[in-house]
Design a protein that fits this description.
This protein has 256 residues and is mainly beta. The protein has one domain: Trefoil (Acidic Fibroblast Growth Factor, subunit A). The protein is built from four helices and 15 strands. Strand 10 and strand 11 form a beta hairpin.
Length: 256
């Protein structure tokens, strides 16, 4: 039986084994979960990280993880436009290899100049702290960086998550730690912390667009979309809660 508890912290939180910026002693003892990304990617200089969703996870492990499907690709590119979904985890599928990196902080990106600048009126720039980090997840089959990251064509309700060029607001995400939940399973030492991933380019005044799982889709199955963050009873639905695991990584928080 799975238990769930709300855990809202102002300080840094060790989010399972999140590979986002630098290892910490707190996360170093957290066990690894398998199956995972390919062995090659996992052993690369920048090891891969699994992104999974609470709705599909069973037994507190990443049963279904991010996948760059073969649907939606825009020729002649091999990667641009690929629809992102969650697929049964395997250490032999290169389409499940992603590397998470920090693009900067909101203080660096909000209102800046250049292609990576965030609109100063975006929800993230207005409602999150300047020190909060901005992340991107790059597709890296067998550890080879593709230059394309999980994103969307624009901050539009209902748009599909796709591979977009890395380094622009269309591929930037913010971890909404104020809405995180901790999920534990009896007999497992370490819980996983799940949280919404807000699309950084969204300029909504409220109910920002977050990554959302729709398990009933076909072509591909378990597709990811941008939908408004919806609270009910103080919590967001499981379909909007994600965790990052394997390898052991750093904390996710304002100073990470």
């Amino acid at each position: 039986m799975r238990t769930r508890s709300v855990c809202v912290l102002a300080t840094l939180v060790a989010v399972s084994t999140v590979g986002l910026a630098g290892a910490t002693a707190a996360s170093a003892s957290i066990p690894r979960f398998k199956p995972a990304e390919t062995t090659v990617c996992n052993n690369s200089t920048m090891p891969c990280t699994n992104i999974s969703n609470l709705m599909l996870n069973q037994g507190n492990s990443p049963d279904f993880i991010q996948n760059a499907s073969g649907w939606g690709v825009v020729p002649p590119s091999l990667y641009q436009g690929r629809k992102i979904n969650l697929r049964q985890a395997s250490d032999t599928r290169v389409n499940e290899d992603f590397i998470i990196t920090k693009a900067g902080t909101l203080g660096q990106l909000c209102g800046a100049s250049g292609a990576n600048a965030l609109d100063a009126t975006s929800y993230a720039c207005v409602n999150f702290a300047p020190t909060d980090p901005v992340y991107q997840g790059q597709f890296a089959p067998n550890g080879n960086e593709s230059g394309f990251c999980v994103g969307a064509m624009s901050a539009t309700l209902g748009f599909k998550a796709r591979l977009e060029r890395c380094g622009s607001p269309r591929s930037f995400w913010i971890a909404d730690l104020a809405a995180q939940v901790t999920v534990t399973v009896p007999g497992r030492d370490k819980p996983l912390v799940y949280f919404p991933l807000e699309f950084a380019a969204d300029t909504s005044l409220s109910n920002p667009l977050v990554l959302t799982l729709k398990p009933g889709t076909t072509g591909p199955a378990n597709e990811l979309f941008l939908e408004q963050e919806n609270f009910s009873g103080g919590q967001v639905p499981d379909s909007q809660l994600f965790t990052l695991t394997d390898p052991v990584g750093p904390t996710v928080g304002p100073a990470s």
